[in-house]
Specification:
23% strand; 6-stranded mixed β-sheet; single chain; alpha+beta; YdhG-like domain-containing protein
Length: 154
């Protein structure tokens, strides 16, 4: 990852509380280990910092992503509707996408979550193998954004 891109992504993450920044970083590290080739597509959106893992440098090639919100990280399966989910971990009612709100980065190490990741990535195993070593690309930065730190409760 070029130094300027790395610094830019680090700055996006630094806007979160220290605990959330650590959680996002740990989730990202785990997914980068799981997806060593392809593209890490970064979207600093209005609601969240979203980081997708794709076999090509385009949003439609993303298969899984994480999104950092002020109080949690969510793992998204962008084609998750048809994934077998015997433990009932996947949430969502949309046409395609399913998600898991992670309680901690260690949730990514749970056997059921690892299996869902394997199943989600498997259809494009050959595409990932042919892709370059993982490259991070900042795809968009929203002009307006919600605060990355949670509002006080009460």
């Amino acid at each position: 990852m070029p130094d300027a891109t790395a610094a830019q992504v680090d700055a996006f993450i630094a806007r979160y509380t220290p605990d959330m920044a650590a959680a996002i970083t740990a989730c990202r590290r785990r997914l980068r280990e799981r997806v060593p080739r392809g593209f890490e597509l970064v979207y600093d959106n209005y609601n969240a910092l979203a980081i997708g893992y794709a076999w090509a440098d385009k949003a439609s090639a993303s298969l899984v992503s994480i999104a950092g919100y002020p109080r949690w990280v969510t793992l998204f399966f962008l084609y998750g509707k048809g994934l077998p989910d015997p433990e009932g971990l996947l949430e969502g009612e949309g046409v395609r996408v399913r998600s898991i709100r992670l309680k901690s980065p260690e949730d990514l190490d749970r056997p059921a979550v690892r299996r869902l990741l394997e199943l989600a990535l498997a259809p494009h195993e050959v595409d990932f193998a042919a892709a370059p070593p993982l490259q991070t690309v900042v795809k968009s930065i929203a002009a307006r954004q919600r605060d990355r730190r949670p509002l006080p409760r009460g």
